[in-house]
């Protein structure tokens, strides 16, 4: 095993720690680790990311469900349309994209290049939200009930995002659960982790039918990430959440700028 691979597997533990501490953000790290450290092609890396983040988030969500933090009704409202969107996008949309996608003069823009740049842009948006660290205020409909229709439509959009770039979309799910469903922030985070887990597995199922997978690599990487989430849940008792989000936001910003430089220049 090379030094680079050792670093990559250590970063797998970090993926779990981040999910355990922040309730999301694992996929933001997983795809760059797989692409730039292990040299896995971008499209295949998003498939692996869906499995790793799905399995790791599922472990975290079990803990949240056990403690009564997850709103299962709102999970269903958001998740069912999201599941449909992510499955269809992974099963039909991503495989149907041409490669190269288009040409800039004589320069081909490949599917991998475009996917990584799009992923980096999403990372920039996530980093901005984390660095600002401004928690959304609760917002219910005039009759005091959750806004189920906008919530379901947002589920469709997040599912499409998950399908295209292999990211769980936690940084989008949490604000929507707070603004449209009126959940307190800690319950929104807990509910988001469950949605991310199932979303990721549904997207992964859309890939299994047309993708050859290296389970000898996926399972050890996932096992280290799951170990990391237990460490993260333990550390969450001691780490101030505001400092954590801001620090992770700056880290994500750095990685996103590196990805854009790498792919465009």
TrEMBL record:
Alphabetical keyword list: Cell membrane, Membrane, Transmembrane, Transmembrane helix
Coarse class of the protein's main subcellular location: membrane
Domain of life: Bacteria
Keyword Membrane: yes
Annotated transmembrane regions: 7-29, 35-60, 72-93, 113-131, 151-179, 185-205, 217-235, 247-264
Topology in the lipid bilayer: Multi-pass membrane protein
Cited InterPro entries: TM_pro_TauE-like, TSUP/Inactive_protease-like
Family, as annotated: Belongs to the 4-toluene sulfonate uptake permease (TSUP) (TC 2.A.102) family.
The protein's name: Probable membrane transporter protein
Organism: Fibrella aestuarina BUZ 2
């Amino acid at each position: 095993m090379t030094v680079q691979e050792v670093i990559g597997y250590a970063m797998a533990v970090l993926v779990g720690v981040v999910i355990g501490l922040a309730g999301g953000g694992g996929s933001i790290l997983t795809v760059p680790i797989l692409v730039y450290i292990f040299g896995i092609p971008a499209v295949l890396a998003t498939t692996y990311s869906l499995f790793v983040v799905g399995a790791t988030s599922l472990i975290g969500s079990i803990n949240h469900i056990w403690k009564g933090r997850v709103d299962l009704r709102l999970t269903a409202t958001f998740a069912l349309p999201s599941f449909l969107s992510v499955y269809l996008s992974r099963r039909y949309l991503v495989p149907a994209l041409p490669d190269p996608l288009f040409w800039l003069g004589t320069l081909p823009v490949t599917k991998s290049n475009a996917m990584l740049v799009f992923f980096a842009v999403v990372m920039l948006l996530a980093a901005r939200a984390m660095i600002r660290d401004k928690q959304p205020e609760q917002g219910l409909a005039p009759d005091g009930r959750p806004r189920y229709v906008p919530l379901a439509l947002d589920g469709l959009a997040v599912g499409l995002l998950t399908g295209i770039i292999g990211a769980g979309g936690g940084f989008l799910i949490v604000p929507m659960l707070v603004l449209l469903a009126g959940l307190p922030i800690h319950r929104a985070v807990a509910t988001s982790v469950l949605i991310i887990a199932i979303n990721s597995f549904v997207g992964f199922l859309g890939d299994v039918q047309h993708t050859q997978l290296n389970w000898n690599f996926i399972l050890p990487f996932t096992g280290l990430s799951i170990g990391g989430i237990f460490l993260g849940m333990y550390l969450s008792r001691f780490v101030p959440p505001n400092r954590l989000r801001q620090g992770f936001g700056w880290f994500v910003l750095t990685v996103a700028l590196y990805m854009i430089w790498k792919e465009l220049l």
